[in-house]
Design a protein that fits this description.
mainly alpha; Fic-like fold; 4 strands; two-stranded antiparallel ribbon
């Protein structure tokens, strides 16, 4: 297996922070933060908290490469988000919390999950011989299920990358984003919302295949 450092996941950290949570720190400054802890270009406490959480999630999956991807692991990834996500990181949300997601197609509030439900989701989405498709399915289905109080998409993108890294695919999954073309991330959010509300998964998976999968060797470009 290729030796992986947290800076190798800079694209995952930057793209997920930018698209999911409005990170304003730039791509190069994000990479410098991951490499050395430099705060140059980090202009707000909220950005710092987000970057620290994403760094910790990235380091956690690196530290656990080769281990199982089960319900306990997914909860542990979410548990790394201690500064910028839920009040109770790693804890599954409950039905009485009525936590949902507002989309342009309506409100998405899936049923609350148990550990058994979460495990069944993972079993269902990781049964293919095609690891890349498994990673896409895990990202979309975990995001759609919204098992946690917050940080669900962040959790999902790191779990998906754990699958890719474990299988030595030499690929990473990043969130489609282009600083020169804001319509790309908007298109991604739109297609993910369609997966949430209308169960239309093919569109977001197609966009992830074309604009989300990146070679590990290209991670610092």
């Amino acid at each position: 297996m290729t030796r992986i450092d947290v800076v190798d996941l800079a694209g995952v950290v930057y793209s997920s922070g930018k698209v999911f949570d409005g990170l304003s720190t730039g791509r190069l400054d994000t990479e410098n933060f991951l490499r050395s802890g430099s705060l140059e270009g980090v202009t707000s406490r909220s950005d710092l908290a987000l970057l620290e959480d994403l760094r910790d999630a990235a380091q956690f999956i690196i530290d656990n490469l080769g281990g199982p991807v089960d319900a306990a692991f997914v909860r542990a990834v979410n548990q790394q988000l201690t500064r910028s996500a839920a009040l109770h990181p790693g804890k599954l949300r409950t039905a009485d919390q009525q936590i949902g997601v507002k989309t342009r197609y309506g409100r998405h509030e899936p049923a609350a999950m148990t550990d058994q439900d979460l495990q069944r989701l993972l079993d269902r989405t990781t049964c293919s011989d095609d690891v890349t498709e498994n990673a896409l399915d895990v990202f979309v289905e975990l995001s759609k299920a919204q098992p946690f109080e917050d940080g669900n998409k962040r959790t999902a993108i790191f779990v998906a990358n754990k699958l890719l890294l474990d299988a030595d695919t030499e690929m990473l999954l990043v969130v489609p984003v282009d600083e020169d073309d804001p319509s790309l991330s908007d298109q991604f959010n739109d297609r993910l919302a369609l997966a949430y509300i209308r169960d239309e998964r093919d569109g977001v998976k197609e966009l992830l295949r074309s604009h989300g999968l990146t070679a590990l060797d290209d991670r610092r470009r």
